[in-house]
Amino acid sequence: MTRPGEQTRPLLVVFAGLPGVGKSTLARQVGSALRMPVLAVDPVDRELWRHEVTETRPGHAAYGIVAAQAEMQLGMGVPVVVDAVNPVAATRRLWQEIADRTGAPLRVVEVWCGDETEHRRRVERRLVEEGTAGTPDWAQVLGRRAEYEPYTGPRLIVDTAVPGNPLPGLLAYLS
């Protein structure tokens, strides 16, 4: 509870997980429920690709753009939800550094789909719905899984293959 005249620090919520596990869906649900903007790396990356922006480390610019936007929002007192794969320690460190600079509490949600058949179905459905431009196919997701570094540190792990609605537990974790 906030006392009169006391300011609360805006929350930084970071969703992580492989493409197709359901993190974007959950990020949007949390953003909607808590009235927080959702900053997603994938649409930024696709837009850069559409404008033929090339880079030596693909995806690096999109993370930088989303990070800059997140830090600006947090600096203005606006809580933020970040939606990104966050496959390696360097990208995960980025969010911790922003939280440290802005004083924002950091909450990480790592999303998995424990049913590989369902995960593959989701990835293939996305290819049909979104098209192939910038959307990874199943082979690319498996490649990313092989490169995905184990997550360490405090976080909530959500398996979207488990029946039921994870949103109430997510909201409890974030409160």
TrEMBL record:
Q: Which residues form a coiled coil?
A: none
For molecular function, the Gene Ontology terms on record are: kinase activity
- UniProt keywords, alphabetically: Kinase, Transferase
- Does the keyword field hold Hydrolase? no
Its organism's taxonomic lineage begins at: Bacteria, Bacillati, Actinomycetota, Actinomycetes, Micromonosporales
Against InterPro entries, the record matches this protein to:
P-loop_NTPase
What Gene3D superfamilies does UniProt report for this protein, alphabetically?
A: P-loop containing nucleotide triphosphate hydrolases
Q: What is this protein called?
A: Kinase
